[in-house]
Amino acid sequence: MDDFLQRRPVLLGISLLLALAVWASVVTAANPLVERTFQAESVHLVGSPGKGADVLPKAVDVTVTGPTSVISRLTDANLTVEVDVAGLAPGRHTVSPTLVAPAGVALDGTLPASVTVIVPAGGGTGP
Amino acid sequence: MDLRIAAMTPWQLILNGFDVLIVTALFYGILILIRHTRAFQLVKGIVVLLAATAISGLIGLSTLHTVLQTAQVALLVAIPIVFQPELRSALERLGRARILSDIARPRSPSTLEKTRTLVADAVARAVLRLSRERVGALIVLERRTGLADLVASGIPLGADVSWQILVNIFTPNTPLHDGAAILRGERVLAAGCFLPLSAQTQTASDYGTRHRAALGVSEISDALAIVVSEETGVISIALEGRLVRRLDEKRLRAVLETDRIDPALVSAHG
């Protein structure tokens, strides 16, 4: 076992693993992941919304996780909440919003978890 | 971790990759320095401890995790004390890097080669003769690590190297035959020198004092030590903390002339 461990390629592999472990540990300690809640200023309708389509509520709370360095620079304005209304027929629909955020930011959830999209008669978003 | 990587710009990714490569080179250099010493076992222990700490933390064994974390702190204090000789040796080897000394003091390759051939031939002839006559001997060839403290423990000679002098030093029942003869370049600096014994546990049970002394000096320096067994006449060499036994003339001369142990020799005779 010792003979195997003392071979140069094996030592190089061990060195690389150790270096990656140290790097991961340092990066984790220096830039820990944090969770924070923002209030998205508005919910955007995407996917060719028909004339008169509406969404309720107009604004949602967004909880995100990301590195401290990124989250600390984040503002409400940096977060865009979108609802895809493509193909929705006239009527009321419950849809889960999605988040458009800077790289390294992940969506944990929104409050409320879903929004109501109202597509008026004659204003369908389908083809 | 993936979120942190995702948040990095391409330049930050390159910089971090470069950072990891430098640290890899640093770890590799340290492992190469200590791989034939007891400190290597310590590194294995540390890796196991770190892995156990990480795993216990991940699966939520909080008591074990705390105990292992405390052990790491204790280890940081204990390492420099317990492994002082190995650390000193590693730092000395680091200091022997010839980057600066070769620039400051250019050497004449032909002079060096001539001296090495002369000394190799004298040592080989003496060792072969002592081996045939089953006379115990221990010859140390100083390299870059200074052995002045060991030289001071013996009887100073300052003679030119010749096979006759070496044979004469180890002739039984003469005042200088006990201990080691230390050579620097083409000079026999001293004879009857005391060397530190190897602390390798396996060596302690398998070999006699002469072999342990040869191994001991090779552990604390880059010296090449040649041993002739008094009981069997077998020729062994110790270099970089490794002992290779049962050398014939061809292999002995090869080691003396190149300062290197052929890896095949280690697997065959180590």
Largest binding interface between chains? A-B, 30 and 24 residues
Q: Provide the low-confidence segments of chain B as ranges.
A: none
CATH class of the largest domain in chain A: Mainly Beta
Gross geometry of chain B: elongated
Largest sheet of chain A: 3 strands, antiparallel
What class do helices, strands and sheet pairing of chain B give? alpha+beta
* CATH topology description of the largest domain in chain B: YojJ-like (1
Q: Please identify which CATH superfamily of the largest domain in chain B we are dealing with.
A: DNA integrity scanning protein, DisA, N-terminal domain
Set down the secondary structure blueprint.
The complex is a heterodimer of chains A (127) and B (270).
Chain A: H1 2-5, H2 8-30, E1 33-40, E2 43-46, E3 54-56, E4 60-67, H3 68-71, E5 80-84, E6 91-95, E7 98-100, E8 106-111, E9 115-119
Chain B: H1 2-6, H2 10-34, H3 38-59, H4 62-82, H5 84-95, H6 99-104, H7 109-132, E1 137-142, H8 148-151, E2 155-160, H9 163-169, E3 180-184, E4 187-193, H10 201-206, H11 209-220, E5 224-228, E6 235-239, E7 242-244, H12 249-258, H13 263-269
Helix pairs in contact in B: 3-4, 7-9, 7-12
Q: Can you characterise this structure?
A:
The complex is a heterodimer of chains A (127) and B (270). With 127 residues, chain A is α+β, with helices and mostly antiparallel strands. Chain A folds into 2 domains: 1-30; 31-119, RNA Polymerase Alpha Subunit, Chain A, domain 2. In chain A, 24% of the residues lie in helices and 37% in strands. Chain A has 3 helices and 9 strands, in the order ααββββαβββββ. Chain A has helices at 2-5, 8-30, 68-71; strands at residues 33-40, 43-46, 54-56, 60-67, 80-84, 91-95, 98-100, 106-111, 115-119. In chain A, the strands form 3 sheets. In chain A, strands 1-4-8 form a 3-stranded antiparallel beta sheet. A 3-stranded mixed beta sheet of chain A has the order 2-5-7, with no helix packed on it. In chain A, strands 3-9-6 form a 3-stranded antiparallel beta sheet, with no helix packed on it. The termini of chain A are far apart. In chain B, strands 2-4-3-1-5-6-7 form a 7-stranded mixed beta sheet, sandwiched between helices. The longest helix of chain B has 25 residues, at 10-34. Chain B has 2 domains: 2-102, no CATH class; 106-269, YojJ-like (1. In chain B, strand 6 and strand 7 form a beta hairpin. Chain B contains 13 helices and 7 strands. Chain B is elongated. Chain B has helices spanning 2-6, 10-34, 38-59, 62-82, 84-95, 99-104, 109-132, 148-151, 163-169, 201-206, 209-220, 249-258, 263-269; strands at 137-142, 155-160, 180-184, 187-193, 224-228, 235-239, 242-244. Chain B has 270 residues and is an alpha+beta fold. In chain B, helix 3 (38-59) runs antiparallel to helix 4 (62-82) and helix 7 runs antiparallel to helix 12. The chains are: A alpha+beta (127), B alpha+beta (270). The interface between A and B is medium-sized, with 30 and 24 residues.
